[in-house]
Amino acid sequence: MAGTEIDVKYVAHLARISLSPAEEQKIGAQLGNILGYIEKLKELDVSQVEPTAHAVPLINVTRPDEIRPSLPTDEALRNAPAKANGLFLVPKIVE
Amino acid sequence: MEYEAVIGLETHVQLKTKSKMWCGCANEFGAPPNTNVCPVCLGMPGVLPVANDEGLRLTVLTGYLLHCTIPRFAKFDRKNYFYPDAPKNYQVTQYDKPSTANGYLDFEFNGGMSRVRITRAHLEEDVGKNFHFDRNSGVDFNRAGVPLLEIVSEPDITSPDMAYAYLNALKDVLVYGGVSDCDMEKGMVRCDVNISVRPKGQKELGAKIEIKNMNSFSGARKALEYEIPRQIEVLTKGGKLSQETRRWDDVANITETMRSKEQAHDYRYFPEPDLMPFEPTEAWLEEVSKRVVELPLARKQRFMVDYELPAPDAETFVNDVPLGDYFEKAVASAKNRKAIANWVINNLRAKITETQIPLAEVKVKPNDIPELVALVDNGKISSKIAQDVFAEMFTSGDSPAQIVEKKGLAQVSDTGAIEKLCDEAIAANPKSVEDYKAGKVAALNSLKGQVMKLSKGKANPALVGEILEKKLKA
User: Which of A38, B119, B122, B235 could be joined to B152 by an S-S link, Cβ 3.0–4.6 Å?
Assistant: First the structure.
Protein backbone atom coordinates (compact mmCIF):
# COMPACT_ATOMS: atom_id res chain seq x y z
CA MET A 1 0.00 0.00 0.00
CA ALA A 2 1.44 3.32 -1.04
CA GLY A 3 1.78 5.76 1.87
CA THR A 4 -0.19 8.99 1.77
CA GLU A 5 1.66 12.20 2.54
CA ILE A 6 0.92 13.66 5.93
CA ASP A 7 2.42 16.69 7.61
CA VAL A 8 3.60 14.93 10.76
CA LYS A 9 5.19 18.05 12.23
CA TYR A 10 1.94 20.00 11.95
CA VAL A 11 -0.20 17.20 13.36
CA ALA A 12 2.26 16.72 16.22
CA HIS A 13 2.04 20.43 16.97
CA LEU A 14 -1.76 20.33 17.00
CA ALA A 15 -1.64 17.39 19.41
CA ARG A 16 1.01 19.16 21.53
CA ILE A 17 3.48 16.27 21.36
CA SER A 18 7.14 16.59 20.47
CA LEU A 19 8.68 14.04 18.19
CA SER A 20 12.33 13.38 17.41
CA PRO A 21 13.25 13.33 13.71
CA ALA A 22 13.40 9.52 13.91
CA GLU A 23 9.93 9.37 15.44
CA GLU A 24 8.61 11.74 12.83
CA GLN A 25 9.83 9.36 10.17
CA LYS A 26 8.45 6.28 11.84
CA ILE A 27 5.08 7.72 12.82
CA GLY A 28 4.74 9.55 9.52
CA ALA A 29 5.05 6.25 7.70
CA GLN A 30 2.55 4.56 10.02
CA LEU A 31 0.00 7.35 9.69
CA GLY A 32 0.54 7.33 5.94
CA ASN A 33 -0.33 3.67 5.87
CA ILE A 34 -3.46 4.20 7.92
CA LEU A 35 -4.57 6.98 5.58
CA GLY A 36 -3.83 4.60 2.73
CA TYR A 37 -6.39 2.15 4.09
CA ILE A 38 -8.91 4.94 4.39
CA GLU A 39 -8.19 5.96 0.81
CA LYS A 40 -9.49 2.55 -0.11
CA LEU A 41 -12.92 3.49 1.23
CA LYS A 42 -13.08 6.24 -1.34
CA GLU A 43 -13.48 3.60 -4.02
CA LEU A 44 -16.95 2.92 -2.69
CA ASP A 45 -19.78 4.73 -4.45
CA VAL A 46 -21.66 6.60 -1.69
CA SER A 47 -23.36 9.16 -3.91
CA GLN A 48 -26.75 7.68 -2.97
CA VAL A 49 -26.05 7.48 0.77
CA GLU A 50 -27.01 10.23 3.24
CA PRO A 51 -24.02 11.38 5.29
CA THR A 52 -24.42 10.23 8.86
CA ALA A 53 -22.99 11.67 12.05
CA HIS A 54 -23.56 8.49 13.99
CA ALA A 55 -23.44 4.79 13.48
CA VAL A 56 -26.09 4.28 16.16
CA PRO A 57 -29.66 4.90 15.01
CA LEU A 58 -30.62 6.95 18.05
CA ILE A 59 -31.87 10.53 18.24
CA ASN A 60 -33.13 12.94 20.92
CA VAL A 61 -31.41 11.39 23.89
CA THR A 62 -32.01 13.93 26.64
CA ARG A 63 -32.34 14.23 30.39
CA PRO A 64 -34.58 16.52 32.46
CA ASP A 65 -33.02 19.73 33.78
CA GLU A 66 -32.44 18.53 37.33
CA ILE A 67 -29.52 19.10 39.63
CA ARG A 68 -27.69 15.99 40.76
CA PRO A 69 -24.96 15.81 43.36
CA SER A 70 -21.51 16.92 42.23
CA LEU A 71 -18.24 15.41 43.38
CA PRO A 72 -16.79 16.50 46.70
CA THR A 73 -14.03 19.01 45.87
CA ASP A 74 -11.32 16.80 47.43
CA GLU A 75 -12.40 13.97 45.19
CA ALA A 76 -12.51 16.22 42.12
CA LEU A 77 -8.99 17.46 42.80
CA ARG A 78 -7.55 14.12 43.86
CA ASN A 79 -5.64 13.47 40.66
CA ALA A 80 -4.56 17.06 40.14
CA PRO A 81 -0.77 17.37 39.93
CA ALA A 82 -1.05 20.67 41.80
CA LYS A 83 -3.89 22.35 43.65
CA ALA A 84 -4.54 25.25 45.99
CA ASN A 85 -7.68 26.72 47.55
CA GLY A 86 -9.92 24.39 45.63
CA LEU A 87 -8.35 25.31 42.27
CA PHE A 88 -6.50 23.13 39.80
CA LEU A 89 -3.07 24.75 39.46
CA VAL A 90 -1.57 24.90 35.98
CA PRO A 91 1.50 26.57 34.50
CA LYS A 92 0.97 30.30 34.22
CA ILE A 93 -1.40 31.06 31.36
CA VAL A 94 -0.05 33.75 29.07
CA GLU A 95 -2.28 35.10 26.33
CA MET B 1 -11.02 58.73 0.42
CA GLU B 2 -13.97 57.95 2.63
CA TYR B 3 -14.04 54.61 4.42
CA GLU B 4 -16.87 52.62 5.92
CA ALA B 5 -16.85 50.01 8.66
CA VAL B 6 -18.37 46.55 8.34
CA ILE B 7 -19.06 44.96 11.71
CA GLY B 8 -20.38 41.56 12.75
CA LEU B 9 -20.79 40.36 16.32
CA GLU B 10 -20.57 36.99 18.00
CA THR B 11 -22.41 37.14 21.29
CA HIS B 12 -22.16 34.39 23.88
CA VAL B 13 -24.86 34.09 26.51
CA GLN B 14 -25.31 31.57 29.29
CA LEU B 15 -28.66 29.86 29.25
CA LYS B 16 -30.86 29.97 32.33
CA THR B 17 -31.00 26.29 33.24
CA LYS B 18 -30.84 24.72 36.67
CA SER B 19 -28.17 22.21 35.72
CA LYS B 20 -25.29 22.13 33.25
CA MET B 21 -25.69 21.10 29.64
CA TRP B 22 -24.33 17.56 29.74
CA CYS B 23 -24.44 16.64 33.43
CA GLY B 24 -26.48 17.31 36.56
CA CYS B 25 -24.04 19.73 38.22
CA ALA B 26 -25.65 23.02 39.22
CA ASN B 27 -25.49 25.93 36.79
CA GLU B 28 -24.80 28.42 39.52
CA PHE B 29 -22.65 31.53 39.79
CA GLY B 30 -20.47 32.25 42.78
CA ALA B 31 -20.14 28.80 44.33
CA PRO B 32 -16.76 27.97 45.92
CA PRO B 33 -14.27 26.75 43.26
CA ASN B 34 -14.75 23.25 41.89
CA THR B 35 -17.80 22.43 43.97
CA ASN B 36 -20.14 22.09 40.96
CA VAL B 37 -18.08 19.56 39.07
CA CYS B 38 -18.34 15.88 38.25
CA PRO B 39 -16.53 13.36 36.03
CA VAL B 40 -18.54 14.54 32.98
CA CYS B 41 -17.71 18.25 33.17
CA LEU B 42 -14.17 17.55 34.32
CA GLY B 43 -13.60 15.60 31.13
CA MET B 44 -12.67 12.34 32.79
CA PRO B 45 -12.37 9.29 30.59
CA GLY B 46 -15.27 6.91 30.10
CA VAL B 47 -18.08 9.31 30.92
CA LEU B 48 -21.19 9.83 28.83
CA PRO B 49 -22.69 13.30 28.44
CA VAL B 50 -26.49 13.53 28.07
CA ALA B 51 -28.16 16.66 26.70
CA ASN B 52 -30.21 18.81 29.08
CA ASP B 53 -33.66 19.09 27.47
CA GLU B 54 -34.22 22.61 28.83
CA GLY B 55 -30.96 23.75 27.22
CA LEU B 56 -32.29 22.52 23.88
CA ARG B 57 -35.64 24.22 24.46
CA LEU B 58 -34.06 27.57 25.39
CA THR B 59 -31.90 27.40 22.25
CA VAL B 60 -34.90 26.91 20.00
CA LEU B 61 -36.88 29.50 21.97
CA THR B 62 -34.12 31.99 21.19
CA GLY B 63 -34.41 30.97 17.57
CA TYR B 64 -38.10 31.84 17.63
CA LEU B 65 -37.46 35.16 19.41
CA LEU B 66 -34.92 36.08 16.72
CA HIS B 67 -37.17 34.96 13.84
CA CYS B 68 -34.85 32.11 12.89
CA THR B 69 -35.71 28.97 11.01
CA ILE B 70 -35.47 25.85 13.14
CA PRO B 71 -33.89 23.00 11.19
CA ARG B 72 -35.44 19.61 11.83
CA PHE B 73 -31.99 18.12 12.29
CA ALA B 74 -29.27 19.42 14.57
CA LYS B 75 -26.12 17.77 15.80
CA PHE B 76 -23.15 18.39 18.03
CA ASP B 77 -19.48 18.55 17.12
CA ARG B 78 -16.17 18.69 18.89
CA LYS B 79 -14.03 21.77 18.47
CA ASN B 80 -10.53 20.66 19.40
CA TYR B 81 -7.99 22.90 21.09
CA PHE B 82 -5.76 22.90 24.13
CA TYR B 83 -6.32 25.45 26.84
CA PRO B 84 -6.31 24.92 30.60
CA ASP B 85 -9.94 26.02 30.99
CA ALA B 86 -11.17 23.34 28.56
CA PRO B 87 -10.93 20.13 30.58
CA LYS B 88 -11.78 17.78 27.70
CA ASN B 89 -9.39 19.49 25.25
CA TYR B 90 -12.40 20.10 23.08
CA GLN B 91 -15.54 22.15 23.32
CA VAL B 92 -18.86 20.64 22.35
CA THR B 93 -20.57 22.96 19.88
CA GLN B 94 -22.75 22.86 16.78
CA TYR B 95 -20.62 23.25 13.70
CA ASP B 96 -22.48 22.62 10.46
CA LYS B 97 -25.94 21.66 11.74
CA PRO B 98 -26.94 24.32 14.29
CA SER B 99 -30.30 24.33 16.06
CA THR B 100 -31.32 27.71 14.60
CA ALA B 101 -30.36 29.80 11.56
CA ASN B 102 -31.28 32.79 9.40
CA GLY B 103 -33.03 35.18 11.70
CA TYR B 104 -32.96 38.89 12.42
CA LEU B 105 -33.24 41.42 15.20
CA ASP B 106 -35.05 44.73 14.75
CA PHE B 107 -34.19 47.58 17.10
CA GLU B 108 -34.46 51.32 17.47
CA PHE B 109 -31.38 53.22 16.46
CA ASN B 110 -30.69 56.81 15.53
CA GLY B 111 -34.35 57.76 15.67
CA GLY B 112 -35.39 54.98 13.30
CA MET B 113 -35.53 51.23 13.02
CA SER B 114 -32.54 49.05 12.19
CA ARG B 115 -32.34 45.39 11.32
CA VAL B 116 -29.35 43.13 11.83
CA ARG B 117 -29.59 39.68 10.35
CA ILE B 118 -28.72 36.74 12.56
CA THR B 119 -26.67 34.06 10.84
CA ARG B 120 -27.29 31.47 13.50
CA ALA B 121 -27.66 30.88 17.21
CA HIS B 122 -26.03 27.62 18.15
CA LEU B 123 -25.67 25.71 21.37
CA GLU B 124 -22.30 25.03 22.93
CA GLU B 125 -20.78 24.80 26.38
CA ASP B 126 -18.92 27.27 28.53
CA VAL B 127 -15.38 26.62 29.76
CA GLY B 128 -13.80 26.95 33.18
CA LYS B 129 -12.59 30.18 34.73
CA ASN B 130 -8.90 31.00 35.08
CA PHE B 131 -7.30 32.87 37.91
CA HIS B 132 -3.84 34.25 37.42
CA PHE B 133 -1.22 34.26 40.15
CA ASP B 134 2.44 35.30 40.19
CA ARG B 135 3.92 31.93 39.33
CA ASN B 136 0.99 29.91 38.05
CA SER B 137 -2.68 29.98 37.17
CA GLY B 138 -5.62 28.29 38.85
CA VAL B 139 -8.69 26.83 37.17
CA ASP B 140 -12.22 26.55 38.53
CA PHE B 141 -14.44 24.26 36.44
CA ASN B 142 -17.77 25.27 37.99
CA ARG B 143 -18.61 27.09 34.77
CA ALA B 144 -17.36 24.33 32.48
CA GLY B 145 -20.29 22.69 30.73
CA VAL B 146 -22.77 25.46 31.44
CA PRO B 147 -25.00 25.81 28.35
CA LEU B 148 -23.81 28.68 26.20
CA LEU B 149 -25.53 30.10 23.17
CA GLU B 150 -23.42 31.70 20.49
CA ILE B 151 -25.42 34.23 18.50
CA VAL B 152 -23.67 35.17 15.28
CA SER B 153 -24.77 38.26 13.40
CA GLU B 154 -24.29 39.04 9.74
CA PRO B 155 -21.89 41.95 9.08
CA ASP B 156 -24.81 44.40 8.96
CA ILE B 157 -23.52 46.78 11.61
CA THR B 158 -21.90 50.00 10.45
CA SER B 159 -20.84 51.91 13.55
CA PRO B 160 -19.78 51.48 17.20
CA ASP B 161 -23.04 53.05 18.34
CA MET B 162 -25.06 50.69 16.20
CA ALA B 163 -23.14 47.73 17.64
CA TYR B 164 -23.94 49.01 21.12
CA ALA B 165 -27.65 49.43 20.28
CA TYR B 166 -27.77 45.93 18.78
CA LEU B 167 -26.16 44.35 21.84
CA ASN B 168 -28.56 46.06 24.20
CA ALA B 169 -31.57 45.13 22.10
CA LEU B 170 -30.36 41.53 21.94
CA LYS B 171 -29.91 41.44 25.69
CA ASP B 172 -33.43 42.83 26.18
CA VAL B 173 -34.87 40.10 24.00
CA LEU B 174 -32.99 37.35 25.82
CA VAL B 175 -33.84 38.62 29.29
CA TYR B 176 -37.46 39.16 28.25
CA GLY B 177 -37.71 35.75 26.69
CA GLY B 178 -36.44 34.12 29.89
CA VAL B 179 -33.54 32.63 27.98
CA SER B 180 -30.73 34.20 29.97
CA ASP B 181 -30.30 36.62 32.83
CA CYS B 182 -27.54 38.29 30.82
CA ASP B 183 -25.89 39.52 33.99
CA MET B 184 -22.72 41.14 32.70
CA GLU B 185 -21.14 41.28 36.16
CA LYS B 186 -21.47 37.51 36.38
CA GLY B 187 -19.98 37.01 32.94
CA MET B 188 -23.25 35.72 31.50
CA VAL B 189 -22.79 37.71 28.28
CA ARG B 190 -19.58 38.10 26.34
CA CYS B 191 -18.99 39.20 22.80
CA ASP B 192 -16.38 39.06 20.09
CA VAL B 193 -16.30 41.62 17.33
CA ASN B 194 -15.42 41.12 13.68
CA ILE B 195 -14.52 44.36 11.99
CA SER B 196 -13.17 45.42 8.62
CA VAL B 197 -13.09 48.71 6.77
CA ARG B 198 -13.31 49.41 3.05
CA PRO B 199 -13.47 52.43 0.78
CA LYS B 200 -17.07 53.61 0.66
CA GLY B 201 -18.91 52.00 -2.22
CA GLN B 202 -16.48 49.11 -2.62
CA LYS B 203 -18.12 45.70 -2.78
CA GLU B 204 -15.30 43.47 -1.54
CA LEU B 205 -14.76 43.32 2.19
CA GLY B 206 -11.49 44.41 3.75
CA ALA B 207 -9.31 42.15 5.90
CA LYS B 208 -11.37 40.81 8.79
CA ILE B 209 -10.02 41.59 12.21
CA GLU B 210 -11.44 39.91 15.26
CA ILE B 211 -11.36 41.58 18.65
CA LYS B 212 -11.64 39.52 21.80
CA ASN B 213 -11.82 40.14 25.51
CA MET B 214 -14.54 42.74 25.76
CA ASN B 215 -16.50 42.08 28.91
CA SER B 216 -19.09 44.80 28.53
CA PHE B 217 -21.17 46.33 25.77
CA SER B 218 -19.58 49.69 26.36
CA GLY B 219 -16.22 47.92 26.11
CA ALA B 220 -17.22 46.60 22.69
CA ARG B 221 -18.22 50.08 21.61
CA LYS B 222 -14.95 51.56 22.90
CA ALA B 223 -12.92 48.87 21.16
CA LEU B 224 -14.66 49.68 17.87
CA GLU B 225 -14.20 53.40 18.40
CA TYR B 226 -10.49 52.69 18.66
CA GLU B 227 -10.20 50.03 15.99
CA ILE B 228 -12.04 51.67 13.08
CA PRO B 229 -9.85 54.82 12.89
CA ARG B 230 -6.78 52.63 13.44
CA GLN B 231 -7.59 50.50 10.40
CA ILE B 232 -8.48 53.53 8.28
CA GLU B 233 -5.20 55.15 9.23
CA VAL B 234 -3.21 52.09 8.19
CA LEU B 235 -4.94 52.11 4.79
CA THR B 236 -4.68 55.87 4.32
CA LYS B 237 -0.95 55.68 4.94
CA GLY B 238 -0.69 53.11 2.18
CA GLY B 239 -0.34 50.18 4.55
CA LYS B 240 -2.02 46.80 4.30
CA LEU B 241 -4.24 45.06 6.82
CA SER B 242 -4.22 41.32 7.18
CA GLN B 243 -6.57 38.98 8.97
CA GLU B 244 -5.73 38.72 12.64
CA THR B 245 -7.12 38.43 16.13
CA ARG B 246 -6.62 41.39 18.39
CA ARG B 247 -7.17 41.74 22.08
CA TRP B 248 -8.90 44.70 23.72
CA ASP B 249 -6.88 46.11 26.57
CA ASP B 250 -9.48 47.86 28.70
CA VAL B 251 -6.88 49.57 30.84
CA ALA B 252 -4.83 51.13 28.05
CA ASN B 253 -7.95 51.40 25.84
CA ILE B 254 -6.19 49.98 22.80
CA THR B 255 -6.36 46.79 20.75
CA GLU B 256 -3.22 44.73 20.25
CA THR B 257 -2.33 41.73 18.12
CA MET B 258 -3.07 38.36 19.72
CA ARG B 259 -2.45 36.07 16.82
CA SER B 260 -2.16 36.48 13.11
CA LYS B 261 -3.63 34.24 10.45
CA GLU B 262 -0.48 32.11 10.26
CA GLN B 263 -1.08 31.03 13.85
CA ALA B 264 -4.82 30.70 13.31
CA HIS B 265 -6.44 27.78 15.07
CA ASP B 266 -7.11 24.55 13.29
CA TYR B 267 -9.97 23.19 15.33
CA ARG B 268 -10.43 19.90 13.47
CA TYR B 269 -14.17 19.79 14.01
CA PHE B 270 -15.79 16.39 13.90
CA PRO B 271 -19.17 14.98 15.01
CA GLU B 272 -19.39 14.43 18.75
CA PRO B 273 -19.73 10.64 19.00
CA ASP B 274 -21.11 10.72 22.55
CA LEU B 275 -24.15 12.85 21.74
CA MET B 276 -26.99 11.85 19.46
CA PRO B 277 -28.44 14.24 16.89
CA PHE B 278 -31.52 16.19 17.85
CA GLU B 279 -34.56 16.11 15.60
CA PRO B 280 -37.30 18.28 17.10
CA THR B 281 -40.79 16.92 16.59
CA GLU B 282 -43.84 19.03 15.70
CA ALA B 283 -45.25 18.59 19.22
CA TRP B 284 -41.96 19.55 20.86
CA LEU B 285 -41.65 22.70 18.75
CA GLU B 286 -45.25 23.59 19.54
CA GLU B 287 -44.49 23.36 23.27
CA VAL B 288 -41.46 25.62 22.88
CA SER B 289 -43.29 28.16 20.75
CA LYS B 290 -45.85 28.59 23.55
CA ARG B 291 -43.06 30.20 25.56
CA VAL B 292 -42.55 32.99 23.05
CA VAL B 293 -43.36 36.28 24.76
CA GLU B 294 -44.02 39.78 23.50
CA LEU B 295 -40.68 41.38 22.71
CA PRO B 296 -39.61 44.69 24.25
CA LEU B 297 -39.92 46.70 21.05
CA ALA B 298 -43.37 45.30 20.27
CA ARG B 299 -44.43 46.01 23.84
CA LYS B 300 -43.21 49.59 23.64
CA GLN B 301 -45.05 50.17 20.38
CA ARG B 302 -48.22 48.59 21.77
CA PHE B 303 -48.15 50.80 24.88
CA MET B 304 -47.65 53.86 22.72
CA VAL B 305 -50.48 52.98 20.34
CA ASP B 306 -53.04 51.31 22.61
CA TYR B 307 -52.66 53.59 25.62
CA GLU B 308 -51.43 56.70 23.79
CA LEU B 309 -48.46 56.97 26.11
CA PRO B 310 -45.36 59.05 25.31
CA ALA B 311 -42.23 57.01 24.53
CA PRO B 312 -40.51 57.50 27.92
CA ASP B 313 -43.58 56.14 29.77
CA ALA B 314 -43.83 53.19 27.41
CA GLU B 315 -40.13 52.49 27.92
CA THR B 316 -40.59 52.50 31.68
CA PHE B 317 -43.21 49.78 31.30
CA VAL B 318 -40.93 47.83 28.97
CA ASN B 319 -37.99 47.97 31.35
CA ASP B 320 -40.14 47.09 34.34
CA VAL B 321 -42.48 44.38 33.10
CA PRO B 322 -44.40 43.79 36.36
CA LEU B 323 -45.01 47.54 36.67
CA GLY B 324 -46.22 47.60 33.05
CA ASP B 325 -48.54 44.66 33.73
CA TYR B 326 -49.86 46.50 36.77
CA PHE B 327 -50.47 49.58 34.64
CA GLU B 328 -52.35 47.50 32.09
CA LYS B 329 -54.67 46.21 34.82
CA ALA B 330 -55.15 49.72 36.21
CA VAL B 331 -55.81 51.32 32.85
CA ALA B 332 -58.25 48.67 31.63
CA SER B 333 -61.47 50.60 32.12
CA ALA B 334 -60.08 54.07 32.56
CA LYS B 335 -60.36 57.15 30.39
CA ASN B 336 -57.48 59.30 31.56
CA ARG B 337 -54.64 56.93 30.66
CA LYS B 338 -51.83 59.42 30.93
CA ALA B 339 -52.91 60.29 34.49
CA ILE B 340 -52.91 56.60 35.41
CA ALA B 341 -49.43 56.20 33.92
CA ASN B 342 -48.26 59.20 35.96
CA TRP B 343 -49.58 57.74 39.20
CA VAL B 344 -48.05 54.37 38.52
CA ILE B 345 -44.69 55.74 37.41
CA ASN B 346 -44.27 58.78 39.64
CA ASN B 347 -46.04 57.71 42.81
CA LEU B 348 -46.32 53.97 42.98
CA ARG B 349 -42.82 53.31 41.70
CA ALA B 350 -41.36 55.98 44.01
CA LYS B 351 -43.13 54.41 46.99
CA ILE B 352 -41.83 50.98 46.03
CA THR B 353 -38.29 52.32 45.82
CA GLU B 354 -38.69 54.17 49.09
CA THR B 355 -40.18 51.30 51.09
CA GLN B 356 -38.50 48.40 49.29
CA ILE B 357 -41.84 46.62 49.28
CA PRO B 358 -41.99 44.46 46.15
CA LEU B 359 -44.81 45.23 43.72
CA ALA B 360 -46.35 41.82 44.33
CA GLU B 361 -46.91 42.77 47.98
CA VAL B 362 -48.13 46.30 47.36
CA LYS B 363 -51.57 46.86 48.92
CA VAL B 364 -52.79 49.38 46.32
CA LYS B 365 -55.06 47.46 43.96
CA PRO B 366 -54.74 48.27 40.26
CA ASN B 367 -58.36 49.44 40.03
CA ASP B 368 -57.85 51.86 42.94
CA ILE B 369 -55.68 54.04 40.69
CA PRO B 370 -58.40 54.91 38.15
CA GLU B 371 -60.75 55.53 41.10
CA LEU B 372 -58.27 58.04 42.53
CA VAL B 373 -57.83 59.70 39.14
CA ALA B 374 -61.59 59.98 38.76
CA LEU B 375 -61.88 61.65 42.19
CA VAL B 376 -59.43 64.31 41.03
CA ASP B 377 -60.94 64.66 37.55
CA ASN B 378 -64.45 65.07 38.99
CA GLY B 379 -63.27 67.73 41.40
CA LYS B 380 -64.01 65.58 44.47
CA ILE B 381 -60.49 66.09 45.80
CA SER B 382 -57.65 68.36 44.82
CA SER B 383 -54.54 66.87 43.29
CA LYS B 384 -52.63 67.86 46.39
CA ILE B 385 -55.03 65.93 48.62
CA ALA B 386 -54.81 63.06 46.15
CA GLN B 387 -51.15 62.72 47.11
CA ASP B 388 -52.12 62.25 50.74
CA VAL B 389 -54.86 59.82 49.78
CA PHE B 390 -52.37 57.82 47.76
CA ALA B 391 -49.94 57.66 50.66
CA GLU B 392 -52.78 56.33 52.80
CA MET B 393 -53.79 53.83 50.10
CA PHE B 394 -50.23 52.56 50.10
CA THR B 395 -50.12 52.03 53.86
CA SER B 396 -53.66 50.79 54.54
CA GLY B 397 -54.76 49.29 51.23
CA ASP B 398 -58.11 51.07 51.59
CA SER B 399 -59.82 52.35 48.46
CA PRO B 400 -59.48 56.08 47.70
CA ALA B 401 -63.21 56.67 48.22
CA GLN B 402 -63.05 55.00 51.64
CA ILE B 403 -60.11 57.16 52.65
CA VAL B 404 -61.70 60.40 51.46
CA GLU B 405 -64.86 59.49 53.33
CA LYS B 406 -63.15 58.36 56.52
CA LYS B 407 -60.80 61.32 56.76
CA GLY B 408 -63.24 63.92 55.49
CA LEU B 409 -60.92 64.94 52.69
CA ALA B 410 -63.57 65.74 50.13
CA GLN B 411 -62.87 68.98 48.38
CA VAL B 412 -64.88 71.93 49.51
CA SER B 413 -66.63 73.43 46.52
CA ASP B 414 -69.22 75.14 48.64
CA THR B 415 -68.94 78.77 47.53
CA GLY B 416 -70.19 80.15 50.83
CA ALA B 417 -67.57 78.27 52.84
CA ILE B 418 -64.77 79.29 50.49
CA GLU B 419 -65.85 82.94 50.50
CA LYS B 420 -65.55 82.91 54.25
CA LEU B 421 -62.05 81.54 54.10
CA CYS B 422 -61.09 84.08 51.42
CA ASP B 423 -62.27 86.90 53.59
CA GLU B 424 -60.18 85.58 56.44
CA ALA B 425 -57.11 85.36 54.26
CA ILE B 426 -57.59 88.85 52.85
CA ALA B 427 -58.02 90.30 56.34
CA ALA B 428 -54.91 88.56 57.63
CA ASN B 429 -52.63 89.54 54.72
CA PRO B 430 -53.01 93.23 53.93
CA LYS B 431 -49.52 93.30 52.41
CA SER B 432 -50.40 90.74 49.76
CA VAL B 433 -53.64 92.53 49.00
CA GLU B 434 -51.72 95.76 48.54
CA ASP B 435 -49.15 94.07 46.29
CA TYR B 436 -51.85 92.58 44.15
CA LYS B 437 -53.63 95.86 43.78
CA ALA B 438 -50.28 97.43 42.81
CA GLY B 439 -50.10 95.02 39.92
CA LYS B 440 -48.15 92.08 41.36
CA VAL B 441 -50.16 89.19 40.01
CA ALA B 442 -48.03 86.66 41.94
CA ALA B 443 -49.46 88.01 45.17
CA LEU B 444 -52.67 86.20 44.32
CA ASN B 445 -50.89 82.86 44.61
CA SER B 446 -49.71 83.72 48.08
CA LEU B 447 -53.27 84.49 49.13
CA LYS B 448 -54.50 81.39 47.43
CA GLY B 449 -51.97 79.42 49.43
CA GLN B 450 -53.27 80.95 52.62
CA VAL B 451 -56.83 79.96 51.79
CA MET B 452 -55.76 76.41 50.96
CA LYS B 453 -53.95 76.25 54.27
CA LEU B 454 -56.99 77.49 56.13
CA SER B 455 -59.08 74.82 54.40
CA LYS B 456 -56.47 72.16 55.24
CA GLY B 457 -56.01 71.67 51.53
CA LYS B 458 -59.62 70.76 50.94
CA ALA B 459 -60.83 73.88 49.15
CA ASN B 460 -61.27 73.60 45.42
CA PRO B 461 -58.21 75.55 44.24
CA ALA B 462 -59.80 76.76 41.00
CA LEU B 463 -62.75 78.09 42.90
CA VAL B 464 -60.52 79.75 45.47
CA GLY B 465 -58.65 81.59 42.71
CA GLU B 466 -61.87 82.71 41.12
CA ILE B 467 -63.42 84.00 44.32
CA LEU B 468 -60.25 85.73 45.50
CA GLU B 469 -59.88 87.54 42.22
CA LYS B 470 -63.48 88.63 42.30
CA LYS B 471 -63.13 89.92 45.84
CA LEU B 472 -59.87 91.77 45.19
CA LYS B 473 -61.10 93.41 42.05
CA ALA B 474 -64.31 94.50 43.71
Answer: B119
